[in-house]
Amino acid sequence: MKPPTSPGSLLRGLITGACLAVSTVVAHAQSDGPPPAAGPRSPPVQMFTLPQGPAAVVPNFWNVERRLERPDAAQLPTTIRFLTTSDFPPFNYLASDGALLGFNVDLARAICAELAVTCTLQPVAFENLLDQLDQGEGDAILAGLASSPAMRQRVDFTERYLGTPARFAARKGLPPTAPTPESVADKKVAVVSGTAHEAYLRAFFNEAAIRTFPNAAAARDALRIGEVDLLFGDGIGLALWLNGTSSESCCGFVGGPFTENRYFGDGLAVAVKPGGDLLRQAIDYALQRIWEKGVFADLYLRWFPVGFY
């Protein structure tokens, strides 16, 4: 399956097939000038560690000190019509009985429950999402759209509900040393050629023995059989691979997430029509309340048993 061509299809690129690594140098290639001067340690995303232990870590994208105003129910629509897709598990997919399931589906329903409105979800082809929104066939898109600068010229976005971090993975049994430029300097690191992840490695981990591969499957196989010491790629795709059968339980994450948006994008958000401020603000309010109530954490852990943060 070919990687996405739409500038807003970052997530589609992350999940396609066996979860392709980002196939374009998204944030880095679209920005002018040299790579950012910041080192490989991002400003940390706020984390919430559950009682189950350090493995049960859920990212928090909402400023708990900023209290959003509850929307006026009288000004909200009685039904929010979400447009989504049906072919990208575990985000959106059809079960054997035809039911629409996935993280985004449950998140949309949680938003509507918080706002006390009816919710409908209409699956359409990914490439038709924006046209369907323009034509009034839906009120919002919740389908893994990346809030890139190009996409923001066509739609308005809520605050992000998921990031798209990069992660290192290694074979199990190795010392769990957090990757730093110094500790990786003598390691062979696999990465998909021509991606934002390769650009990041060459900018900040350039003393490592960087081994490029034509696609994510080849890079993961190299790690699985021990041809390389580490693999650097998108955290979502890697998490799904680690939790799947094709990894043969060979490997796990090492270190934490890398979240520099100039390389890895601004994350995933809900899209509404330009000027749809009331609906956008209402969804932002609902997302923050869903987080505060623990609903977001429940959904994240349900659909991503191997978390990517």
TrEMBL record:
Signal peptide range equals 1-29
Where on the tree of life does the source sit, at the highest rank?
Bacteria
Give the coiled coil ranges: none
Which key words are in the record?
Signal
Name the SUPFAM superfamilies for this protein. Periplasmic binding protein-like II (SSF53850)
In terms of SMART domains, this protein maps to: PBPb
Per its UniProt record, what Pfam families does this chain match? SBP_bac_3
Q: Per the database record, which ranges form the Solute-binding protein family 3/N-terminal domain? A: 79-307
Q: Does the keyword Membrane apply?
A: no
By its UniProt entry, which PANTHER family does this protein fall under? L-CYSTINE-BINDING PROTEIN TCYJ, MEMBRANE-BOUND LYTIC MUREIN TRANSGLYCOSYLASE F
Q: In its UniProt entry, what is this protein called? A: Amino acid ABC transporter substrate-binding protein (PAAT family)
What is the native source organism of this protein? Aquabacter spiritensis
